[in-house]
User: Fold these one by one.
Assistant:
Number 1:
Amino acid sequence: MKPGLKLPRGKRAVLLLAALAAFALLVFSFRWFLGQAGSLREARATLSRASAEAGALAARQAKAEAARQEFLRAAGPLARDAEAGAVLRFLEDAARASGVRVTLAAAEPRLEKVWKGHFRAVPWKLEAVGSGPGVQAFLARCESLPCPGELRVFSVQAEESPGAAPGQVKASCLLLLYSTDPPLREELLAAPAARADVWKPPASWSPPAPAAPEAGGAEAGASGQEEPAEGSGPR
Amino acid sequence: MRRCAGVWRSEEEVFGCLFGRGPKGPRLLKKARAPVLLRPGGVEDALRQVLRALGRAPLVVSCRGQDLAVRCLRVPKLPEREVAGAASWEMRLLVGERRERVVLRHAVLGPLGDGLGVLAAAVPEDLVRAVLQPLGRPAWAVDLEVGALWRAGALAGVVPAEEPVALAAPSGPGAAVAVGRKFPEFALVLPGRGPRELDRAVGYYESQERVKASARLWAGPEPPEGWGVLELPGLEPEFALAAGLAVWPWLEPRLDLMTRDMKEGARARQALPWLLVGVLAASSAGLGQVALLYRSQAARARAEAAALAPKVARSQQAEKEAAAFRSWADLASSFLASLQARSPLLEAVRLSVPPDAWLTRVDLLPAKAEAKGKEGGAALPSAGGQLVVEGRSLSLSAAGVVRDGLRRSLGCEARVVQVSWDDSLGCYSFRVEAYLEGGGGR
């Protein structure tokens, strides 16, 4: 303390100290008040946002459900597994409808994340024989299977061997079938009935005569069915 | 009241005494004096010095002046209220009509003959205010110097007495005189303090009362000729009036010339800083209360928000799911739209073949550049980019028809590679190529 400094004494000193204390208290209270007011404002804003979001729960859930339905509708064709047994059933149906015989259906290893990091593609090598219009219809049906697909390359060649019927053609192609990755839906084919001796060919089957022209036979094996083969002509 | 301070001011000095209540009457606790320097603020400085020496205690000061009127009245024995009216009427007659406000006070002293002795005073308010102004602190009371003089006499033990006693004290340039037995029966403020003036005043009392004053005592130093000194125990004579003021609470007679306004103003002036401090403190407390309220409200709001948190999380999750589903739906739609069907190429080829021609081979060959995966994905097998049509015809122009048909239907470049006559078949063989843009297809 400086010597000679005249300090307030007695009542004035007490009053001064009280005034300083009151002022300091006021400043502290004001700062505290401002802090609490800001905190309250923030808490109210948070509550308001939370209330709004909680209030929108039902609407958002409905919107999410609608979006899910929209997605299922849009992605429905892609939901099916392109490696499933049903694919062979679709190919068999397409061949039967087109009057051709599928002589080869081979699935190659699948390709994943083929488009923007999504979807999977299963390459199928197909070979079929039949009339020209039939093969053309078969190829068109291959691109309209329940599984979305597209032909990458194909080759159609007329059968010009001496025993071949005029207009008979042989087609080979590479068909890509697409699905989501992983597939949303799995459909499994079931055997219609189990036979006691599965090593014994069905009675309806008879091997073709040696002189008969080659007409396939891979279809029955590829389809995974144990249905009897329907003759040897193109279907 | 346990303690009281009295301050009296002469022309040259300020005197102060502090008395307390003792078992045998008022007891001197402190005394102080300070010279009045002849400079601006000299009086205030001296007063402050004395007051500081006396410490905190209720303060009684005296008032003097030419406009001050003091009288000892003799009124009939009346009720107190009527005594007040009579005293007031008497003093108004004495001071006459005045513009300024006048403070009228009286004190009933006791029975005097067949009536009552009353000490009455009429003092202009401004005079009282002028006394209070330099103090710098509120006063408890303002009394007359005559009253202080008589109380000093009582403190010295010379009054009350059976025989009249004359007391006098300096009062500014003049003197205050009080004569009486049990209480002042005659009081006067003289403009001068010479022995003749004093004796004339005492003589007037003596002639009126037909008695002789037994003693003439001067409360102060240097008594006039023929006057003794009023001796106070433990005090110099010049402290007599200060002591008389300091014993105001315990000895009679006493008047208080301060009006209610003065007391309240003093109290207000004294309370104002504290009031401000109080306002500050109250404001602080109010802000604190509001802040506490805000804090509790904020806590409640946060608790409510926390209670809503699971719902909010579900809501946000639902929104994210909706966005994801929409995105996936768009993705699936755009992917499906990007697929290219190439089987229609065969129909285009069929429609291009004229009647005199037939096909032997149609190949959709991969484009020369290796096709990559669709938009950055895994590599896909190359898509067909070149359509090769081979056949036979009976005319040379059939190959041109095929070429033009492909050009028309596919809208792409096409060319006839070769047409040749085959002797073994008896017809033409031709080869036509079409170059599809972007892998062909619809």
Number 2:
Amino acid sequence: MNRKGFSFVELLIVTAIFTVIVAASLSLAHKAQFSFRAERDFTQAAEQARIAMDQLIRYLRQAGNDPTGELKKAGVEAVVVTGSGIVINSDITGSGPVGTAPSPGNSYDYGDPDGDNNDQMEQVVVQYAGNSDNGVLYLDIGDGNGSQALVDNLADFQMEFFDRYGNATTTDIARVVIRMTAVTGRNDLRVAPGHKNRIALRSSVVLRNKTLDLYEPPPEGTPAS
Amino acid sequence: MQNQRGIALLVALILAVLLSLIGLSLTLASMSSIRMTSEFESHERALMIADAGQSAARTVLRGKSINTLLAQSTNIHIYLESDDTTPPDGSPSLRNPRLPVEARNIDFKLTPNPVGSRLMNGMLTPSLGSEIVVNNYTGLYFAKLTDNQDEAILPAPDDPKADLDGKVFLRVLGIDRTIANEVTSHGSYFKNAVAVVETVLKRDMTFQLNSPLALYGQNVSANFDGNSFEIDGYDHRGVSFANLLKGNCNHNKNEEGFSGIGCLYDASDQGDAGSAVEKLKDLLTKGDKNGEALDDNVIGQSERSDGTLAVNDDTDTVRNSDNPDAVNIFNPLFLLHFARMMGAVADTTFEDGADPKPEPAIFGTSEAPKIILAKGDLDISGSGSGAGILIVQGTLNITGAFEYEGIILVVGEGNLQLGGANKAIAGGVFVANIANDGTVGVPTISINGKCEFYMKSDSIEMAYSLLPMRVLAWREITSEIEPN
């Protein structure tokens, strides 16, 4: 039977080695924590920006929807460029009260686009308020709640406008290119003390209502193709 | 030394746990990111499928009567017990080919037992939808045609199976099948991604012509040679082309009559197409070079009313027409654009100066009518026949025997030369001289030898039904727009 215990030196060495290993593991865990946090921040920032982009794309895609032709008659443009953003006009929802039976004087076309752009989601006002890394994109869909922030962590937001022939324009817009750069709220300490992660999104949206009618002749003065 | 072995095990274990924790956290973060992106992606894909389905469904409409399609009924299985199974009368949800809630929850590859069924009108796809491949990705789409219900004069109910204005709704529901990847590890599972697209389609009826020969311009240049041609403005609707050719068209003068030759020019302050009409009447009354009068060779409405030649100024008829597209015919830019755009949809395109061989040149048949575009002059020197729409941007010169049913548009140079062997055209011919900048010039016609023009409104309808439908409006139906 060997009943001899550890010598003091032996214990000291073991403890020292153990401390070093634990310290190393803790620093690793700490880094992992940073990593996790940074990834989560990034995912959140990206998600916010993507949702905003998705919303904008949806409204833009059906901009200028005008089945009754009333908007065209009234000279309403699908997309109007303003100082701080755009106004998207369309006639996509019906305004008739739910369940109303068709009768004279009561729109037979309940639920149909009704020839105006006053209903919810029909006139959408998009505004961008730039502010270094906290730029806010506001959306007013006409539901009475005014402008609501859609995304508030943008470093950059830009739109470019083109007509159906691909020329840059601000009238008779048929395609919009949107660029936005989202920034994380907290710094990513893995990279550098003051570093924030960024994600840049770009989308090119074709306004379906401005490009689908094969029969519409090009405006006067357009050279023959 | 034996004790240190135990420490090594412990250290290895701790390290392993720590490392796997780090790994796991990273994986979770990227997994949620992937999941998020893939949800965006499947919705986009569902939308692409719906849009592709929409294009496919539009091709089904080609050459078909809208009323026939609206009236055809399909038995649709219902898979979900739901209050929304039958939307209320007048609800736009009735235009859905499938309930979106059903489309999200049912795997159409492994359908459960149906809980019921109902008959639906205007379906363009079978009960279980049609498959379509978009960017190597297979999706499922359902399409339904619905008449717009704003044609009837209120309070008379509108017949949902009858279309009056050529305008219909086409709703297409596209499914990106993600339901098969059902995952329950997080207590959640995927549903199908669904997108519903609604378009307002309109059949273009610009070329619902009012005469077997229509000339667009303030003036015309015409040459009639010989007494063997006939331009017959009585509507031969319902008479088959074969019977017409055999001469079995004993129309009586009480039939609905159109002009024999209709002149069109939209300028009321300059007397519209009055001078063209005068010129033609003058030519026909004077007769050909042998002095033979030709005034009984053009028959139709005018002849019935006051016994004069059936050459009319049809400008007002078009202006006051119920057909909202009719006035397009006064827009030279529309006409030019139309002739060019046909390049994208024509079944056959001929280059300038083509002389289609071998004989006989076939430009479609009554069973399978075609859209044919000649991008310049077209010389048909041998025999030929056809049905559908023939668009010629240059001079149309036919010297061989030729039989045609449908619409012939000579738009551009606007020069129609008919001579030589026998010709018969049932439907309508439209001649317009328009320069590239949209300036309207003088159409030229030369008729020589035995040529027969028969007004036939059903052939004209058959021809313009071949044209692709106009897409007047496009919207994506979301649950915000349409809660049920």
